[in-house]
Fold these 2 entries.
Entry 1:
Amino acid sequence: MRVCSIVGARPQFIKAAVVSRTLREVAEEVLVHTGQHYDEEMSDVFFDELEIPKPEYNLGIESDTHGRQTARMVAAIEPVIEETDPDVILLYGDTNSTLAGAIVGSKRDVAVAHVEAGLRSNNRSMPEEINRILTDHASDLCFAPSRDAIRNLTDEGITDDVYWTGDVMYDAILDARERSADQSTILDDLGVQPDEFVLATVHRASNTDDPENLAAILDGLTDAPLPVVFPAHPRTVNRLQEHGLWERATSELELIEPLGYLDFVRLLDTAERVATDSGGVQKEAFFLETRCVTLREETEWVETVECGWNRLVGPETAAIREALTTDWEPKSTPRPYGDGMAGQRIISLLQQHLADSEPEEQL
Ligand code: UD1
Ligand code: UDP
């Protein structure tokens, strides 16, 4: 079995690391990095820490408008597929790199498998929502992290080769939690104590590109009763500067460069609570039992809200302040995202699918 895995953005490196490790024991993997994220701290650090093999191809696409970036990825992925002739293209999440891989797979009639299929925010103004819908509809195999994701696919008429696998990020965090507690020195490096700081991340286009939303979030964070550690995504650094908010952010928050996975997990595990608009961080907060204040109006990870570990506040100063200052208790701690074996399940399903689709031997 030859699998072409396509990744490009930070969360995809973390997800692919879980699968690649075991995949390479049973199959040939061609790892393609589109180059969507390219700064050392947005890309290389994850390959090093998570021991992800060096990509066989780095397409070097980097930042661009959504249309051009996706189109350039499509144009660069197609010859790789032609040259390597994989049995399946394996995609993760909802970025432009995901969509580009789905387009090439469906145009060249190569099986497409989508990890994190079926997630919906029901907000079509979010670029990721369109990427998810298009990728799921172009996929031959949908690997859903939760029962809710399967329901979303069914509602859209996607019912063949849909599998519940659990979430690969849960697999990842089980390993990272222990390793980060052993290895990370980030608390000492920053001079913060467990439970005595708030962690924050912001990078969604709707929050960073709108100056009013970014200012409202900044106002809410600066009102937090504890110091706020803010590892800033490069997009957010650019927008803070462009919107004239940089001085305020750096003077009132502990604004630092993006962190490697182990340092970030260590902070998330020990923070009093986290404020974020990230999809992955909402889930990881839930896994680590850190209360999460989500700087969005809706979420794909509805289970985290239902059980009370996650609160949706949107880019609203008063709501952020309230969620960061008042005490609230989660209702329950369910396990909707599997048992830490999602990666293994995905590989078995790929093997099974490819064995089933082998042509019958001629008699
Ligand atoms: C992308 C994904 C988003 C995901 C996020 C993970 C899409 C549409 N969005 O958003 O779903 O949550 O990655 O972090 O695919 N930049 C750098 N250096 C880098 C990478 C980006 O400076 O290594 C800057 C550039 O100015 C770029 C901007 O960040 O224009 C945005 O990067 P891009 O990859 O387009 O989108 P993200 O906001 O990172
Ligand atoms: N992350 C990290 N360093 C950081 C911020 C986030 O390693 O400084 C990790 C985080 O643990 C999670 C992933 O990056 O696994 C989430 O990525 P991001 O928030 O960029 O994207 P999203 O999940 O929203 O697509």
Entry 2:
Amino acid sequence: MAQPVLHVADEGRQPRPLQGGRARLSRRMAHDRGAEAGRAGARLNWCMRTGGNIYFLAKIGATDGLSFQQMAGSMTGMTEEEYRDMMIKGGRSPEGNRYLGEDGDAQPQHQPQGAAGKNKEPDSMAKISASFYTSHVPAIGAAIDLKKTGEAYWQPLFAGYEYSKEWMKENTPDVIFLVYNDHATAFSLDMIPTFAIGTAAEFMPADEGYGPRPVPKVIGHPELASHIAQSVIQDDFDLTIVNKMEVDHGLTVPLSLMFGEPDAWPCKVIPFAVNVVQYPVPSGRRCFQLGQAIRKAVACFDDDIKVQIWGTGGMSHQLQGARAGLLNREWDNAFLDRLIADPAGLSEVPHIEYVREAGSEGIELVMWLIARGAMSDIQGGPAPTVKHRFYHIPASNTAVGHLILENN
Ligand code: DHB
Ligand code: FE
């Protein structure tokens, strides 16, 4: 009786059932896959440099719909056809054996991926242009959706965002990296990721009990999000990677505040959810350090795009218990002062102070430290410019704070 075949080490051929499938691919699809393979190859090369091995990476490539020939070819500077021909003819020639030492031909500078990986002009990499901070009170979203922004109660609040809306028209980024907390909407107590990055192509607005808000779906940036996940996880931050998620008011209200009621949001958005709902929540210090890791990740994304990082939630508010309705104008404004001028010192403030001074939901403010940590002055660059600062009490139960810091 034949033994079951557990594994056939044959990189040159597709497994049989797939081979038939591949043969049926239209020429156009095959062509598109070739172009796709080039882009994905660059990403896989980056994964290799940061410690991936080819069999693990093959799984990522397969998820992207690439054949092994496309993946291995792209990682060794060959086309799919060249790689396949080489393997059919018996594999890599012993002539081609590479040696690493001295000035051997396996040195990165002699390899095609080395050339691709050479330092690019700083101008051609992604950049964080500004950080942006705002409360995300759901009633603000309802006021916009129900056309109440001109009412006496709401008018002073929306007036505080007028400058920012104009500024944003001039400074629309390609991508917003939007730090917010999920309010037990996408994640219940079944599963509580401390930090979750949305790597999907799109995210639908969630139904939080009143039907989904009438706002556009959020278009993500899977490539940049995956790149950030890869880089930040290698920098010791354990992110949860989320490929399917609905987004709640924490994310959609800030977008509505800035962009009104468009048919489509004017840029891509990477949702980044932080658990500040269920203890234990991350410290301000950890959030601040995470922001620095995010900045580093964005700065080595090989595309000339402008990224803004938004921190949302807060300021002082408590929605439940004996202290419901708590607001603290003084503490909030000191927080804004320190966020601008002493973020490292501010990041040392313990949870208990947020809760005591800013209420049980005021802890949302730790998320602002992620955005602040991603600014260039934290890495020795010049101080950011304060483009706008606004504080207003109240919106619903909450003190509303807003800040725009531009990188210099
Ligand atoms: C309110 C504020 C929030 O940040 C939130 O998530 C829910 C409600 C409020 O003030 O009503
Ligand atoms: Fe909230």
